[in-house]
Amino acid sequence: MLIGLGCILLGFILMSGGGSDDPNVFDPSIFSWRRIRLAPTLVLIGFGIQVYAILLNPNKDSKS
């Protein structure tokens, strides 16, 4: 689960920033490949890892 949390955290860190102090100035860096493609993909992969970790049965080999 820690790997999934790390992926989610990294994705949100990559999405952050890029804002402009002056609202009248447009900053095109908000449409960078990192913020549009890479960061959301990392977040979704992290959520997938979390779901897998929650549904994983650690006692698969032992029979009840």
Textual characterization of the structure:
The protein has 64 residues and is mainly alpha-helical. The protein is 58% helix and 0% strand.
Record the SSE blueprint.
Layout: H1 2-15, H2 33-55
Are there runs of 5+ residues with pLDDT below 50, and where? none
Q: What is the count of helical runs?
A: 2
The count of strands amounts to: 0
Order of helices and strands: HH
Q: What portion of the residues fall into strands of 2 or more residues?
A: under 5%
Overall helicity: 55-70%
What descriptors fit this protein?
64 residues; mainly alpha; 58% helix; 0% strand
Care to give the gist of this entry?
This protein has two helices and no strands. It has helices at 2-15, 33-55.
